[in-house]
Amino acid sequence: MSKPTFEFEFDPEELKRVSRSDSTAPVEEPKPSKLDDEDRGGRAASRRISVHALGQMAFCPRSAVLALERGDQEDPEEQLPRLDYLPNFDLARIEESLKVQVRWLLVAVTFLVMLLVPLVFGMWWGEPLVIYPSLGIVVGLLWWIANLAEDVLILSQRRHAALNATAKEPSPRIDAVQEISWWEMIRAGFEPAKYERPFQHPLLPLEGSPWRVLQRDSLRIPVVRSNAQRLGNRKGEVFEKHCMRLAAYAVLLETTDHVQSPYGLVFLNDDHRGLAVPITQHDKDSVHEAAERFRLLLKQMDAGEAEPARPENESHCRTCPYGQPVHLNDSEESQLNADGQDVFVILDHSDRRFHSNCGNRFRWIPPHAKAMHRQFRVGD
Ligand code: SF4
After folding, report:
1. 290 Cβ partners below 8 Å, 6+ apart?
2. Is the CB of 366 under 6 A from ligand 1?
3. Which of 33, 48, 248, 252 is placed for a possible disulfide with 199 were both Cys, Cβ 3.0 to 4.6 Å?
4. Cβ–ligand 1 contact at 311 (below 6 Å)
């Protein structure tokens, strides 16, 4: 199969949306780059854009650049993954974790029964030195048992869903978003594959590897997982960043001959029920345009001609961790300077020093919710 080449006519309005070259908005102009023109051109041309950062463009161009430069693979605006995350999407790991949790549950119940003996005798004798410590441990054990019982219930439900699913899959000619279950896809014969090394596009500056690829015959279905609380916006539409990422992964997967990715899947971390999102030729063309536009923006940034725009909807900044002000002490500032970061110090009404990742990078005070009531100003 011959590899296509792409030429794009950029819509100037769209380019303005993601980049900003006026001088009115920033608190402080970015420092001029020391690179000469050749270095700048070469750097922008050789830099690869991660699919994750490309998807982030839909949320905020500045967050896309920050994600790219920092190598972040988690959406900053989404909540952090739970530390006590229970396995899902993998029957062997679910069953293994279920066995471990049941074992701990039995241990906890055994301890509880053993402790009831001194507690009953302590109450019988009216001995407070026995009653109160025993009661404290019993309460602790009951709390532990409740947590273990909840985990066992969740894992049992996941195991039940995995073992009782029936084969079902979207049509390769899917033309609308539809609900799908991970286990239905597995029953339909798809094999989940995990690629440690990112796919690299031969023509575009694009690279990335989805969380999983479901494979069967010539079908390669990219799968992404999200830490968000729901899979779509308030209107029920799939988030634009997820659509963009699925289409970008499809573009990367289809660089292999005789492979098709007519749709992609998106799931929440804790739920095997997700959405199948059609990937049309128009979506793939949009990926090519977005990647080229991103590359042009990076080139303009390297040349000091533009910087990424703020999000169209500045309410995005209110909860964005990149814009969250963090208290700054001298040792942290020295460490950041040693790491090559030029810290943009801001002061609150008590002259305490703060900074943020977005503020450091773009020399401004992002309108984060925690910045609003402190009335920050630029430090000296
Ligand atoms: S703080 Fe605002 S401008 Fe900065 S990355 Fe977050 S959303 Fe974008």
Report:
1. 54, 57, 244
2. yes
3. 252
4. yes
* Domain 178-284 indexed as CATH 3.40.1350: yes
Hey, whose CA ends up nearest to atom 3 of ligand 1?
Answer: 310
Domain spans in the chain, listed from the N-terminal domain onward = 178-284, 318-380
CA of 366 to the centre of ligand 1 (A): 7
Q: Check whether 77 has a pLDDT greater than 50.
A: yes
User: Which string of DSSP letters, residue by residue, matches 150-161?
Assistant: HHHHHHHHHHHH
Compute the radius of gyration of the chain from its Cα atoms.
Answer: 26
**Measured between alpha carbons, how far is 252 from 290 in angstroms, rounded to an integer?**
14
Cα–Cα dist 317/334, whole Å: 27
| pLDDT level of residue 177 (50, 70, 90 thresholds) | very high
Between the CA of 48 and the centroid of ligand 1 the distance, in Å, is 22
Q: 50 to each of 65, 66, 195, 369, how far by Cα in Å?
A: 10, 12, 15, 29
Token pair belonging to 253: 């997967």
pLDDT for 179-215, tens place per residue?
999 999 999 999 999 998 999 999 898 999 999 999 9
Nearest residue by C-alpha to atom 7 in ligand 1: 317
Q: Determine the atom of ligand 1 nearest the C-alpha atom of 368.
A: 1
Q: What is the 78 CA–ligand 1 centroid distance (Å)?
A: 13
For the cut 60, the answer to whether the pLDDT of residue 133 exceeds it is yes
Residue 127 falls in which region: left (phi positive, over 0), alpha (psi -120 to 50) or beta = beta
DSSP 74: S
Ligand 1 site-directed mutation target among 59, 320, 346, most atoms within 8 Å of CB: 320
In sequence order, what E strands does 125-218 have? 178-181, 191-193, 199-200, 206-208, 212-216
CA distance 67 to 57: 10
Closest CA to 291 of 13, 2, 3, 8: 8
